[in-house]
## 1
Amino acid sequence: MRMFVLDRMKLVNVTDEKFEIQKGFDFEEYMRHSFKVMHEELYSVRVRMIAWCLKDEAGLFVKCGKIKAERKALDKWVVDLPDNWVAAMEATLFTGWVYDFLLPHAREIKAAHPEMLKAITAAKKKNDQADAERIADLLRVGLIPECYMAPQKLRELRRVLRFRNHLVRQAVRMKNKIAGLLMEVGAPYSKKKLHGQVYFHQLMDRLEEVPDFVLDMLSMSRAGLDLFTKIQKRLVQALRRNEHIRGRVNRLMTISGVGEVLALTWVLEGGDPKRFSSVRRAVSYCGLTSPQKESAGKNQRAPISKKRNKHLQTILVEASKLAPRWNPQLAEVHERELARGNKNRATLAVARKLTAYLLAVDKSGKDFKMKQLKAAA
């Protein structure tokens, strides 16, 4: 059996598109064009070279080299490899398509956790070829820190969900920009009604002593806000209707306080629920616990760990602030922790309980059933 390693990949810088505002400027048409350009440039951003190293079972060096990160180059390279080979590669943003391309040709392919490979960067000699050799040695002795690799279809849907989250962040920026422009020119407005369509157009009609270019920027910001909101809603609807995850999402939404965004995030970011052997592992993966720091018999208290799935953590924390309004059991947990005097700890406690509910429903494949609270004696 032969084994080889693909080392981490390098990125190509993408230059930003520049434009000038002209009369009759159609912001919505510009944004559609920009999304098209961004989509095309995103796929032009790729790794240039892949460093690889081939060793046998005894750890003897066979050969090494570099190949272009292109499907045609990989196709030619695979032909020259020996039979029954095992591969390992460091998990990066661009690992997915390489993994999918090589999987039919290999006996096994493992994706190494980049956080666990930080010892490589601490070496005095740091280059792609040396990294590939070290990863090959870890693979040979069975010490490769393997990470979970979601199925290809799930990763494609997850990419759509993350793009939707990106659009939501852009919409929030547009809201902040509108409010900021109004404050800069000293225009009074209602904070609660500002982002409503009717109120905004009425506000634009009665603005006085405001420069024309500020009015143009307000109109463009509003057009961007409407466009981002419209697209993100369509993406959520398309994900909910997808046949691969529709059943799981609908079951998770039977939990009171769980909406479509949280259910989609759990399914697409968490992947297979069976990979979590316990609730504690799921809670740790979601970033709702602090890291353990113990030395010489002393435990040090630390803040919430940064080694987590940040997408799941963000959605769970936000949902935990609203879920107690609809779920009596979560409300009880929130009130109990809030009585101790810390709102953030109460939110985290609700998030952990919510994670336990999501994992139980997803593993069992059954709808959630609310338990009756015991009446006070």
## 2
Amino acid sequence: MSSSSHLDKIKKLRELTGVGFGDCNIAIKECGGDIEESIKYLRIRGFSKAGKKMERVANDGLICVHEENNKLSIIEINCETDFAAKNLEFLNFSENLSKLCFELKGDLNNLKKKKMKDGNSVDDNVINLISKIGEKITIRRCNFFDNNKYMNFSYVHAALKKNIGKLGAVVSIKSTKFNQQIKDFGHKLAMHIAASNPLTIEVSQLDKKMLEKENEIISEELKNSGKSDNIIEKISRGKLEKFKQENTLINQIWIMDPKKKVKDVIAELGKENSITIKDFVRYKVGE
């Protein structure tokens, strides 16, 4: 069998089973290049379970944050159940993956190809872990926050261990000076984002199509209210404005003090410091 033909068969077997390159290579060699026999070979050894598992839904898992020198990465790794998410091997894999995500600055495509400490690629170790745990495992998303003129803060809710949990948030802040007061605010703001789930920082950043759809829903709800068109329009505007306020970070009620909004806290701190929220992300497992 030629080298190119051998590689083509490995590729086809990987596509059919979801099993790693090394194991497909062995199967093809052992079975003389016969694809059907190679699939049987893998099934007997439990590897081809992975291919079937990948058809299932994975909406549990872990959120991991890694931080060094004011740089932060955040990643979501999914499995099917909370039981698997707390499995020691899954925890260790997720923690190691989080470190690699940080090194690669949140580049998901390169992350999947990256070699881990055992010499296997991330993709291959995902397949190996599927075979061991017996659940679908996927790397869903990741992000990276650099330290260019900004301070980055994170929060992981109900952490299973440091920086690993089911819900995490990262926020990036610019300030004229980073004293302890600003650092305390940054940590609290990350906690606020995790709890309040804003969509954007400001109203102007909200998606116009989403606002149009929300307005349609509000109007439909009021159609059969018996009220006049003028009143319905007025109520619709009020409800849409409330939606905007509740879903934009600076306009949300500050979780540390319900009498204030986030922008009020920023204004108070801004008397001595200029503060700008650059960006944020909030990851909740399966959301």
